[in-house]
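Work Package 4 report. The design task specified in the project plan requires that, given a folded chain encoded as structure tokens, an amino acid be chosen for each position. We show below one input record used in the internal validation round.
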């Protein structure tokens, strides 16, 4: 993923099949195209999304509603870690769904996630 320079605001999760990026306190400078890339010896898969950061009050939702939405997104369950030895992997990675474009209010959390599979 493309990462903004303020690493202290970033948290990444990489459990088998689940990849996420959480960015706290979004600023207007965080608006960009974000890329998630998975690869192995058989090839590469790429998915992208656009993050739009709106100034407070410009989305039509109150800051409380925006906060509730971001908290609901953060509550999604993550699968357990699993490791498949490289010698068992027979194909390149495949994203099960694209990253989704996100619009957040300035100061809110950005949550990007996707799932990737490696077929054996």
């Amino acid at each position: 993923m493309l990462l903004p320079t303020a690493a202290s605001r970033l948290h990444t999760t990489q459990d088998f099949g689940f990849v996420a990026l959480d960015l706290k306190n979004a600023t207007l400078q965080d608006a960009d195209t974000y890329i998630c890339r998975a690869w192995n010896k058989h090839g590469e898969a790429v998915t992208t999304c656009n993050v739009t950061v709106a100034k407070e009050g410009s989305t039509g939702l109150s800051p409380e509603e925006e906060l509730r939405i971001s908290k609901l997104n953060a509550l999604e369950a993550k699968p357990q870690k699993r490791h498949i030895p490289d010698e068992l992997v027979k194909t390149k990675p495949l994203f099960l769904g694209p990253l989704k474009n996100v619009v957040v209010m300035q100061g809110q959390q950005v949550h990007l996630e996707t799932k990737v599979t490696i077929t054996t």
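The first strand starts at residue 10 and ends at 15. Validation will be extended to a larger panel in the next phase.
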